[in-house]
Amino acid sequence: MRSVFVISVAGLALAGCATVTRGTTSQVQIVSEPTGVTARTSLGYQCSTPCTLQVSRKDEFAVTFTMPGYEEQTVAVRTQLAGSGAAGFAGNLLLGGVVGMGVDAATGSTLEHVPNPVSVVMTPAAKPPGARTKRPVRSAPRPRPAPPMAASASTPGA
Fold first, then answer.
1. Is 147 exposed, middle or buried (0-12, 13-18, 19+ CB in 10 A)?
2. For 48, left (φ over 0), alpha (ψ -120 to 50), or beta?
3. Which among 24, 35, 52, 133 would be 20 to 30 A from 18, CA to CA?
4. In degrees rounded to 5, what are phi and psi of residue 126?
C-alpha cells in the first residue's frame, strides 16, 4: 500500500499541477466583421473567419486578416500568466514541488493567450489619390454623324 502512495506522489510531482489541469494547448477564437475574411498566423495556420485554432499555450504569434476590397490588418497575440494557471502552479508547492514547477514553466501550461478572441472590424480599402470613379453606363449609344458624301466626277449642268 505504501508503494502505491509513493508512486502516486511521484507521478504528480513529475506532471505539474497546471499541466495536468489546464493542458499545454489552448483554443484561440478568430472573428471578424464581415465574416469570411482570410486569417493567417505567423505560426503557419490559415482559416476563414469565424474559426478556432488549437495552439501551444507558450506560443506568441500574429494574425493577419485579408479580404479583397478591405485594408489588411494584423493583430499581435501575446501570452500572460493566467489566474487559474497561477493556482495550478502554486499547487506544485503542495504536491509537485520544484520538479512540477519546472514542468509547468517549460510547457507554458500556466499561460493564456491575449486577446482571445482575436477580433477585427475590417476597413474598406481607400481609393488611391486621383482614382476616377466609374461613370454610369448609358442606356443607349450616342448616334454617330453620317460620313461626308463623296464628290462625284460629273459636275452639274455639263
1. exposed
2. beta
3. 52
4. -75, 145
* Predicted confidence (pLDDT) per residue in 53-92, tens digit: 999 999 999 999 999 999 999 999 999 988 754 444 455 4
How far is residue 47 CA from its own chain's centroid? Answer: 8
Burial of 97 (0-12, 13-18, 19+ CB in 10 A): middle
Taking each continuous run of H as one helix and of E as one strand, the counts in the chain are 4, 8
Please confirm whether the linkage preceding 124 is cis (ω < 30° from 0): no
> Rounded CA gap, 60 and 57, in Å?
8
DSSP-based helix, strand, coil % in the chain, nearest 5: 30, 30, 40
Cα separation of 85 and 14, whole Å? 17
Degrees, nearest 5: CA angle 46-47-50: 145
pLDDT above 70: residue 129: no
In 3D, which of 78, 100, 77 has the Cα closest to residue 21?
100
Count of C-beta atoms within a 10 Å radius of residue 72: 12
